[in-house]
């Protein structure tokens, strides 16, 4: 699972198109649950968090980010809000 989380983060960090492709497959909520689970190993939690951050920083598809406004812990939420602040001024 840790290797898969890492790979998804690497894919999602390349371009906004890559990030959207990863995000629309419902990957972000799964990564978030792995990150927040007390049953996940420390390695899995670290890789899940990094993957989420990588994907969020490139994702410009806001509908994929909206659920995070309600469910994400503050250290993830700051990246979600950051993306909204980057995308909304340019969204027409």
TrEMBL record:
Question: A biological process (GO) annotation for this entry?
Answer: filopodium assembly
Q: What is this protein called?
A: Sperm associated antigen 6
The protein's GO terms of the molecular function aspect are: microtubule binding
Cite the SUPFAM superfamilies for this sequence.
Answer: ARM repeat
The record's section on InterPro entries has: ARM-like (IPR011989), ARM-type_fold (IPR016024)
Gene Ontology terms: cellular component: acrosomal vesicle; axoneme; extracellular region; microtubule cytoskeleton; sperm principal piece
Top-level taxon? Eukaryota
């Amino acid at each position: 699972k840790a290797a898969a989380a890492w790979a998804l983060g690497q894919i999602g960090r390349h371009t906004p198109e890559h990030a959207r492709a990863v995000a629309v497959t419902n990957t972000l909520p799964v990564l978030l649950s792995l990150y927040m689970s007390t049953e996940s190993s420390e390695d899995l939690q670290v890789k899940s968090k990094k993957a989420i951050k990588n994907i969020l920083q490139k994702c410009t598809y806001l509908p994929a980010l909206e659920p995070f406004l309600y469910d994400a812990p503050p250290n993830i939420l700051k990246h979600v809000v950051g993306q909204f602040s980057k995308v909304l001024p340019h969204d027409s």
